[in-house]
Amino acid sequence: MRILITGGAGYIGSHVAKLLLEDSDHELVIIDDLSTGFYETIETLKNIRDFDFIEADLSNWSEIEGIFKARNFDVVIHFAASLIVPESVVKPIEYYLNNTANGANLINLCLKYDVGKFIFSSTAAVYGEPAPEDAKNGIEEDFPKNPINPYGKSKLFVENMLNDAALVNPDFKYVAFRYFNVAGASPDLKIGQRTKNATHLIKVAAQTALGKRDKMFIFGDDYPTRDGTCIRDYIHVMDLAKAHIDAICYLDNGEGNVFNVGYGRGYTVKEVIDTMKKVSRLDFKVEVAPRRAGDPAVLISNCSKIVDEMGFNPAYDNLETICKTALEWEKKLAD
Questions:
Q1: From the candidates 127, 151, 179, 267, which is the catalytic residue?
Q2: Which class is 2-184+234-263 in CATH?
Q3: Catalytic residue at 96?
Q4: What is the mean pLDDT of residues 65-92?
Q5: Residue 7 predicted with pLDDT over 90
Q6: What pLDDT, on the 0 to 100 scale, is given for residue 85?
Q7: pTM to 2 decimal places
Q8: Exposed, middle or buried by CB within 10 Å (0-12, 13-18, 19+), for 152?
């Protein structure tokens, strides 16, 4: 098959590309504008097997259509998006343009040029702020969608468009993955999260442990949780990447569907920081800061659906493993 990955120079997209390049003979095309992705990642991937890389911005609709017209894609795996929750609160229109409008154009091009499979990078932020009594048992896919920030809203719009498009186009099928908190790096340390000015807790903790930051912050310690800090479901990036590969086969027979991707258990911010201190054998400075806008207290997945319907079988379901691979990747970046 000919597979397009948008945002393939970024964190999650590059891990999906790595698996495809190592374990299949599919023809791969990556589009990335390198605004948050890295050409160093593309170079690393090309050392595995050659593929076409196109530096392009999804907002240039005519250029993107030209690529679709020339390439005859079978699958689109769509990662390219803006994804920082607090930023979306202060720059909402940028998020709707980049995430929703460009997503709509990609779906339209898939319909126009007979692309039959679309795999979408969505988010648990579509659920909004679940009630604590509901959240503690894990959020199921049919839980009410009430995003509390423009990031979550922009992604939910795309989910709805995919569903509507599939209803009237029987040859178009999709999977939307609602990610929880993604962390870690490829165990061989060939690729990992290069994000500049990172906001992801585990990467920030790894950087602080290694002295790349003088200190880190806990944003709010007065949430209604067991230690007052937010609870999240963390998933290793390699398990998430494998789910995307499995989705390609799933769509051979399955209908359009939405799946949570996580481990079904939650850790507090303080527990994650303590785990990073344990695996690094280093203490580091942590301060409490005010809450960030748009942060729900608890987000934990119920992943029974993806296990039952796709046979999801994670290989890295261990917080220490996630923290250790993130830490080792940060060490490599420092070399």
A1: 151
A2: alpha beta
A3: no
A4: 95
A5: yes
A6: 84
A7: 0.94
A8: buried
